[in-house]
Design a protein that fits this description.
Number of strands: 0
Strand content: under 5%
Number of domains: 2
Shape: elongated
Helix content: 55-70%
Radius of gyration: 25 Å
Structural class: mainly alpha
Length: 257
Amino acid sequence: MSIFFIKSILSLALVIVAAVDMLAMFEVFGRNERKYNPETLKKIHRAAGILYLIVFSVITFLCLRFIYLTKTELSVRGTFHGVFALAIVILMAVKVMYIRTYKQFYNHAKVFGVLIALFTFGTAGVSAGYYLLVSEFGTEKSYDRIIQYKERAVMPKREKQDIRKQPAIMTDPESIGRGKNIFDSRCKFCHDAYSMDTVVGPGLKRILKNAELPASRRPATPENIREQFIHPFSRMPSFENLSDEEVEDIIAFLNTL
C-alpha cells in the first residue's frame, strides 16, 4: 500500500475527528437550549482531541520523513499544506496555554478550536484531496514509485562506496553509437535528447552538464543515472532488464548531449 494512500486515509480520519471535535463544542457553547448532556459532549471533545493529536503526530512524522528523504523544494501545493499544518501546531500550543495557564484568555480558546478545525480541512484538502483525486482513490500506482525511489536513495555507506567504483563514462564512438541506438529504441518516445522540452518526461539536453537531474533533482552524475534506470523516479518505468554494458552505452550517449 502506498505511503501517500496511507497518509491520505489518515488525513480523512483527521478531518472526521476534527469535525466531531468542533461539533461537540458547538453543541456545548452554541445553543441556548442544549439538546445533549454537556458533560458527555465534553468527554467526547476531550477524547476526540486526544485522538486528533495522535493521528496528527503520525501524519506529521510521515510528512517530515518524506521531506528528509527527498530533500527537494516544496511545490506551491506542498507549501500551502506545510503552512496550514504549522498554523495548526501553533494554534494548538496557544490553545493549551490558554486553557492550562492563562485562563483569562479561555474564551479565545474556543475560537482557536474552530480555526484548528478549519485549517485541518484546508490541510487535508490540498494533500489528501489532491492525491485521492489524481490517483483515482489510490488505484493509479505510478505515484507509489516516488517514495520507493526516494527511500532507496538513502543508501548505507558501503553501497555508496560500491557506486563510486562504477566505471568511468565511455567516450569511444562505438559506445556512443550503441547508446544512441538503445536510446532511440527505448527512450526517445518519452524524452527529447536535443532540447529541455518535456514530452512525457523531461528533455535531456546537457543532462550531465547541469548540476541536477531534471526530475529527481539529484546531482547530475553517472552514478545517479545508473540508479535511475533501476529505481526510476515518478512515472518512469524501470529498465532493470538492461545489461550493465547497455547502461554504460546510454550514459556515453547522454554525455554527448
